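User: quick one, sequence for these tokens?
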């Protein structure tokens, strides 16, 4: 939580009492005062100052975010100070800053939700982690877009340092969503088929590869846009059985396109509007559509017959809810499994590593303001 970013800096800020739970707003006000005058008298360990992406109000992220330096924070006995290495800009990070995500950190806040870092310093009671180890916040938590994060040991999961950094930074929000959605709704078996829209998203690319590893076919729908032929070729290379643009599916009987591929029993929708209707058309009698995103911002329209005669089930998935359930061990082993696949080259997705110094360019790309761009991963 951004408010937990603390400065127990009584001695440092000229008699202003600042505790572990001092809100970031107060911390930010204190930034304007000289910080280091009494450092020599202060015995507790403190972090280095942190360069952070901060927003004080909700709104368009390119307007309301600023990069600023936050003062050092105290490293308590159970705390780990992590020097962040990389963190992605996900659609949900943008929604949190816009103020439209259901769970948001109190303002002002530091952006970002997942990422990877290197342990910089540990509190005296910390066991099992040492400076130099790589860690990810698991479950993810707000405030990863900054150079140093101090949080309790329980927040951090150690990861293998041979994992490519950009994959360690992005393993939870999207790959874990893909894995859980393949597990949680239908007992899929080898030879079954799934259908999804938004197939070029990181979740979509992971669904294709994780399904393929289990012998599950995937039918993929992408939007009509420049570069759609390259996108189709890329998804097929990842293991997609079929990839269609929405306009290619303007036919009476979409299931007639499937040839020998069995009708899909499960569909994943992260777009809404027409792209969701296409999933419903593809699904087999009694099939299930799981909605996990709404990239087009258009509602889902369902025909009466889809419920009565086709007996479709419509449901949703939210990783944050799954994360908050008591499944820490399962979560850890699933993340290790995914990271292993990344190291073995069996799970890959399109990423662009962007220097943190050029944060606002990466942000504009992530917001779609510079044409279609790969997922932006900030490198600190
Ligand atoms: N429920 C959950 O727990 C959960 C967890 C993770 C992610 N998500 C959601 O899953 C979705 C994908 O996330 P991601 O990080 O994997 O995505 P991403 O890699 O950032 O890619 C964005 C995707 O959205 C498509 N897109 C963007 N604007 C669109 C529009 N106006 N109409 C139709 N498609 C559009 C893009 O298609 P192009 O390739 O054509 O640009 C691309 O496929 C997001 O909605 C995200 O919030 C939900």
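Assistant:
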């Amino acid at each position: 939580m951004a408010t937990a970013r603390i400065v127990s800096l009584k001695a440092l800020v000229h008699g202003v009492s600042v505790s572990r739970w001092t809100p970031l707003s107060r911390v930010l006000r204190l930034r304007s005062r000289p910080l280091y005058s009494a450092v020599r008298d202060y015995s507790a360990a403190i972090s280095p100052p942190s360069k952070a992406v901060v927003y004080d109000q909700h709104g368009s992220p390119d307007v309301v975010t600023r990069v600023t330096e936050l003062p050092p924070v105290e490293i308590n006995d159970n705390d780990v100070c992590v020097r962040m290495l990389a963190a992605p800009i996900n659609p949900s990070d943008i929604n949190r800053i816009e103020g439209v995500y259901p769970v948001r950190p109190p303002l002002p806040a530091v952006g970002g939700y997942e990422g990877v870092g290197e342990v910089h310093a540990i509190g005296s009671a910390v066991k099992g982690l040492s400076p130099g180890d790589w860690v990810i916040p698991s479950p993810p938590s707000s405030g990863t877009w900054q150079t140093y994060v101090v949080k309790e040991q329980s927040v951090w999961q150690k990861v293998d340092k041979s994992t490519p950094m950009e994959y360690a930074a992005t393993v939870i929000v999207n790959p874990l969503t893909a894995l859980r959605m393949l597990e949680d709704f239908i007992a899929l078996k080898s030879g079954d088929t799934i259908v999804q829209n938004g197939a070029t998203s990181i979740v979509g690319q992971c669904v294709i590869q994780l399904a393929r590893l289990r012998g599950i076919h995937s039918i993929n729908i992408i939007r009509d846009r420049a570069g759609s032929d390259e996108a189709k070729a890329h998804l097929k290379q990842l293991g997609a059985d079929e990839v269609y643009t929405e306009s290619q599916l303007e036919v009476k009987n979409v299931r007639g396109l499937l040839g020998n591929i069995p009708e899909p029993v499960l569909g994943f929708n992260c777009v809404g509007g027409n792209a969701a209707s296409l999933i419903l058309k593809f699904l087999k009698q009694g099939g299930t559509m799981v909605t996990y995103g709404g990239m087009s911002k258009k509602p889902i329209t369902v025909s009466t017959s889809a419920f009565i005669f086709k007996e479709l089930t419509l449901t949703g998935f939210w990783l944050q809810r799954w994360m908050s359930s008591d499944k820490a061990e399962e979560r850890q082993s699933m993340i290790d499994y995914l990271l292993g696949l990344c190291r073995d080259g069996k799970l890959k997705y399109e990423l662009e590593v962007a220097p943190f110094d050029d944060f606002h360019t990466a942000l504009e790309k992530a917001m779609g303001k510079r044409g279609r761009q790969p997922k932006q991963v900030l490198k600190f």
